[in-house]
Amino acid sequence: MENYSTRLAKIQDWMTEEGISLLMLEDTEGRRDKNIRWLTGHPGDALLFITQEEVPSRKINSKAILAAWDINLAKLYAGLSPVMIAAYNDFGRQPIKAIAAALQLFKIPSGSKIEIPSVTPYPSFLDYVGELSGYDILCRNNGANVELDKLRAVKDEEEIADIRKAADITNELIDLLEKNVREEKIKTEADAALFIEIEARKRGCEGTSFETLAAGSFRSFAIHAFPAWTNFPFGEKGLSILDFGVKYNGYCTDVTLTFARDLNPKQERIVNLVEKAAKLATAMAHNETPAKDIAAAVDTFFAKSKKEMPHGLGHGIGLQEHEYPVIRNRSDNEWVLKPGMIFTIEPGLYDTLLGGCRLENDILITEKGQEILTTARIIRL
Amino acid sequence: MENYSTRLAKIQDWMTEEGISLLMLEDTEGRRDKNIRWLTGHPGDALLFITQEEVPSRKINSKAILAAWDINLAKLYAGLSPVMIAAYNDFGRQPIKAIAAALQLFKIPSGSKIEIPSVTPYPSFLDYVGELSGYDILCRNNGANVELDKLRAVKDEEEIADIRKAADITNELIDLLEKNVREEKIKTEADAALFIEIEARKRGCEGTSFETLAAGSFRSFAIHAFPAWTNFPFGEKGLSILDFGVKYNGYCTDVTLTFARDLNPKQERIVNLVEKAAKLATAMAHNETPAKDIAAAVDTFFAKSKKEMPHGLGHGIGLQEHEYPVIRNRSDNEWVLKPGMIFTIEPGLYDTLLGGCRLENDILITEKGQEILTTARIIRL
After folding, report:
1. Cis peptide before B227 (omega within 30 of 0)
2. CB-based contact, B332 to chain A, within 8 Å
3. A82-121: string of b/e by CB count within 10 Å (b at 16+)?
4. Pairing of strands B136-138, B113-115
């Protein structure tokens, strides 16, 4: 795929500006990094080493080496990318040993700048510095992996096409979920969650974006119900929340429906406030709008009714279910919306006695305004 | 629950020995830590602050504060533990602000030792040191969270009872899976995965321990199939792998079955080697055995037949699907088996043309020997 080369070139240009000779990315348990999939297609459990200059050598014929836990899987998924595929087993099965091997293979002279992931724990950082003496080891909040995260906030055409496809499937499922709850074919949280699992895959999805949260009315007070779903009733009297997404070709949607039945006036009020907040926020989502302003407007709107939302307004979606841009009312949030950004807007209010209500849709920023990709809604039963 | 107090006391004793005045644990996205659940019952998204001495104060009446993202959920799950429950919102929604607040609440004098999680990224560590000047900030490979991980490697009676219950449910599902595959009620990977999801919850489980890996014969060559399961056939000619676990009261099982149909001699050989390796390893699992020796014996056994296993032999299970002890053939693996340890033994061999075979069971070490808690097996169709 041509995009892999384009993406690799972007980060290599950045490396040149920063004077970095070798970059290591890590996608392992506890330190997941979707940048490796974005750059190569490989879905997980690997290290990726990137350099700027090709080294003419019999052993290596690329500017990037993917050291994969499962080499067979890597050949299947990263075969179209311009990286050299190697077995993690041959790299000592430890990042520090692997980076030492990569330095040798790429013939990188001592004194060079080597960047490791910004999430590298402090004690491990000390180990890197100790083991790779002679090199200048960088581990920075604004390092290469964060630069890649930021690049990924604006989607290219291929990515937008994948998310559109995921959104189309999501919307089909939303209609079917509404129909099946109305017809009482879906009666429990488990019915709803399993319906999504199977129907998403029937339509070609890799799976769901995250564990579906299905919370009937007596559990919907929690922001994220625990356990995620059970055999308890769903869609009965009160407010039931269904938070789910599907993953197509790696790309996620993330939506939340609220099902409302026989509400009392206090519950009606919550639902109306959430619907109005969603409308207000979506209307504000335009090219060049500071994301913080939208979240602040929703907080102010709720505060007028003496309500408080216990979570952020939204987040970017893409290869991860949570990624940049940040859509929160926090002083350090400097994100400004740009065409190609795709993110959720998900106002919600929660009460231990009344239950919870959240309405979440996925928005694409365009040159002219915004496009609401998904059709999540409050469903009045 | 009495155990929460006992566990808290254990880590407080350790803090006394180490001279630590305040300990912070963090269970957030990207930095999951089951120690908070082990110490309080709260299942996720929280910070936990632990000190050694109670501070008589109107504001605080405990030696530990749980700052939870969802305070309602925390009250439900951590209500029986001796910690004080607070809203993360009131702690500035940032670990650094929260730790500063905790230092004030507990009246901890400057110069004191404060321990933060060993997984704290190097750039964040610098921020902590900068913000909390006057305190001695510790971030160590052998810090408190790792000490807790090590304590958790030996299960107490209540934990063993939960894992036994999870194992009983797992074994019931194994029998039903065999029956349903034989009777062709389970024909696809999706059939198998969804059967487990629903039947586990019917039996009172929180859910599965991890996303079920169901790989029909043409995908079983991968150690961990990607995607985890699809609508492709399962249990057809060749080798199909089913790797799953259930979670009961937070405690995980982890087993792998291989379904074998109409094998050729090369496939038969792989299956026989894996079965023999499992037998050999299990027989070696006794009190005081170094875990490395077992893994080394399996590597040697496979090497005699010119085969290589591309992953470790096993891992502890408990609140996490992967925890201590480490059952790997690595020079730095110093784990020695003790009564109360529960772990997997999971030899496997994989070939792009022949497919893969893995056999994984969960073992409890007792005073006298070992108990195989689960009944995973090679199922010849």
Report:
1. yes
2. no
3. bbbbbbbeebebebbebbbbbbebbebeeebbbbbbbbbb
4. parallel
Any A CB within 8 A of B231 CB: yes
Structure tokens at A215: 């919370």
- Decide if B344 contacts B363 (C-beta within 8 A): yes
How sure is the predictor about B61, in pLDDT bands with cuts at 50, 70 and 90?
Answer: low
Establish if B305 touches chain A: CB-CB under 8 angstroms: no
Mean pLDDT of A295-305: 98
Query: B47 vs chain A: nearest CA distance in angstroms?
Result: 16
Best residue in A88, A122, A126, A196 for a mutation probing chain B (most B CBs within 10 Å):
A122
Distance (Å) of CA B151 to CA A309, B114, B193: 38, 20, 33
Contact A228 B207 (CB under 8 A): yes
pLDDT (tens digit per residue) in A328-369: 999 899 999 999 999 999 999 999 999 999 999 999 999 999
User: A5-14, B1-10, B298-307: which has the minimum mean pLDDT?
Assistant: B1-10
User: How many whole angstroms separate alpha carbon B124 and alpha carbon A372?
Assistant: 36
Instruction: Classify residue B89 by its DSSP letter.
Output: G
Question: How far are the Cα atoms of A61, A82, A286, A340 from residue A367, in angstroms, in the given order?
Answer: 41, 32, 8, 9
Asked if B70 lies within 8 A of A141 by C-beta distance, the reply is no
pLDDT tens-digit map of A29-51: 889 999 999 999 999 899 999 99
Structural domains for chain A: 2-151 (3.40.350.10), 157-380 (3.90.230.10)
Q: In the structure, what pLDDT confidence band is assigned to residue B2 with cuts at 50, 70 and 90?
A: low
> Would the pLDDT of B58 be above 60?
no
Place of tokens 């724990």: A121
The reply to whether the predicted model has a pTM over 0.90 is yes
Could you give the angle at which helices A265-284 and A291-304 cross, rounded to 10 degrees?
Answer: 160
What is the token pair recorded at A9? 């070139």
Question: Taking chain A, what is the end-to-end CA distance rounded to the nearest angstrom?
Answer: 47
Query: Which pLDDT tens digit goes with each residue over B337-380?
Result: 999 999 999 999 999 999 999 999 999 999 999 999 999 999 99
Model ipTM value:
0.90
- Helix (H/G/I), strand (E/B), else coil: A155: coil
- Using a CB–CB cutoff of 8 Å, tell me whether B234 touches chain A: no
